[in-house]
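Forwarding the complex inputs:
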Amino acid sequence: MIIGIIGLGLIGGSLAIDLRSQGYSVLGVSRRMQTCETALRLGIVNDASTELRLLAPANLIFICTPISDIQATVIQLLPHLAPTTVLTDVGSVKTSIVKALDPLWPNFVGGHPMAGTAESGIEAAQADLFVNRAYVLTPTAKTPPTALETVAHVVRLLRAKVFFCRPEEHDRAVAWISHLPVVVSAGLIAACQHEADPTILELAQQLASSGFRDTSRVGGGNPQLGVMMARFNREDVLRSLAAYRQHLDQLTTCIEQENWATLEDHLRQTQQARPKFIHE
Amino acid sequence: MIIGIIGLGLIGGSLAIDLRSQGYSVLGVSRRMQTCETALRLGIVNDASTELRLLAPANLIFICTPISDIQATVIQLLPHLAPTTVLTDVGSVKTSIVKALDPLWPNFVGGHPMAGTAESGIEAAQADLFVNRAYVLTPTAKTPPTALETVAHVVRLLRAKVFFCRPEEHDRAVAWISHLPVVVSAGLIAACQHEADPTILELAQQLASSGFRDTSRVGGGNPQLGVMMARFNREDVLRSLAAYRQHLDQLTTCIEQENWATLEDHLRQTQQARPKFIHE
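Prediction (whole assembly, two chains):
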């Protein structure tokens, strides 16, 4: 089987490394010639080009561009495809992408490998990035079972944990555990900058330790990525933010009213609820 | 020099281990006989008792009880002290403690070693817990320089980074980087529980990875500790929460109004601000 990869960044590059080591022939496309040259030099693709037509012989193509470029990329790709070619994407939001691509290409399967790192770009690509990570596939009623099985088979070879759900279920779930944390965490960093007394701000910066480091991590991440999440999953992110604000207000009210027993109940509930979300 | 430690938990026990290995004679007091026996069995104290009078010969005493017990403990301790004995505490809030203890004992120096772990109790005590961690001392105009120098000298032997500031400065700074994150993070866990559809909640729990794990960590911690922070640093925590909510609302408004350029500006600012708080 010949596999095509469009977008040779962290995800696309890491897919290329693993799939080549599985014995597949991997063809890579990047907008930037320099990225193609790097991919060839690193030996993570059999061939690379800035031209989508390179992918004409591919049986399965992973679209690993930024979310905002996926639809336009597919439209340019269509003339080069054989009817049996299976397309899948790696966007962190699914409903809007699946809605846009389902009508364009019957053999499309929405996908989301939940395997980010702080780094990005082909230099950050690594082997086994997807091992034991969740990889969500979001078929619809129209998705051909053979197309779904083709993608699922390859994803299992990456040793990822495969999940199947509807695009809407995926987006609602990741709004809670992936997109809401970014806004919550960014708000924390922004609030600290609010401190008007430079002596206090500097002291806060010096005294900050692991608690602040962890709580602020995703809020200090890639701004474009944060915007994409909010933009393409807007409804679910706003829904999660509304619920979050409600609970934040409840906690604040406990402190205002010195209702310490209720505050302790709330904190005991969060202490008990958290382990269900922690796997490693 | 003879050092007394009241409260042989994570902090008190770890202080005992390091100070004994520095060659000091360490006397430990715990409310629970079993803890005294454990401390003696582990050899982390020279002597231990449930009776405060054991500390009569001590030149320097660390009060390592929960914040809520510090004042009562000192009042019971006073009859046993020589006028030259220096007292210090390890409470994570300083203004209220210093206000309460300054009038009771002239040779008192407020302190806060910023070295917690997920564990607690004497079993969690460990050598070198304070190495390279911040250790804040909060003298007042009334603090005798000799008392401050005595505590600072011992703290430096722990290889902690010593900071000096006013109690009010400490409390305002830690409200931002230590207390606010607990409420922000607890709110995130609580909000996720808000999901009414059990299928979505279960999917969210399964898909949660490092981003959620880190952002939710301090919100899933010890409930009593969270309440103590809010209770004894109430004004500053509420002040930080008010600022936090303002910034959360700004971010939410950007998403509601699809003002993506402004959202990206906010996220770029948080990305640039975070490194100033990160040392390790």
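Chain B touches chain A through 96 residues (CB under 8 Å).
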